[in-house]
Amino acid sequence: FDESSADNTGHVLAAFGGHGQTLGVSRAVKRAARFLRQTQDPGTGLWEGRWGINTLYGTTQAGTGLLRAGESPQAPYLQKAARTLMSFQNADGGFGESTLSYVDDRHRGRGASTPTQTAWVLEFLCQMGLQHAATVPKAVDYLLENQDESETWRDDSVVGTGHPGILYMEYPAYPKTFPVMALANYLTTSR
User: What pTM did the predictor assign?
Assistant: First the structure.
């Protein structure tokens, strides 16, 4: 009963791009990119997430996949996605979105900050080349300031989706991996 999704398509594009299968050489990558352009919300630039809470996950995974598969960070549809995501930043510098976003569009991109969701957005913004936008250092600071005494992150929120509107999941490994990956990407791309 699962249809194609933006987040899974983004993951596959990232993998293809890492092995040289890019928009310039692969018909499958071109078809996947076309699917993502067709499923993007034209008003906001966001994609819905299927396996993570919701537009923060869908947009960051679709966008990162497109970039790793050779799409230009100057592409207007990716620029729109980045601008919309940056507008969701919370006062504490983090990002968050609740399960309510699946049932009420007013909650899209909105919610208490979580390390996992902040990392997703940070990773995408770094891939977009936006390391020097005011949003990025605030997200980095949020992650650095919210480590616990063992210098890792706790995230007791629900950021995984089993079945939208029905079942959501907590993944204990997410706050241990995604912030490290995003901060490493930030350090690598900020040089």
Answer: 0.95
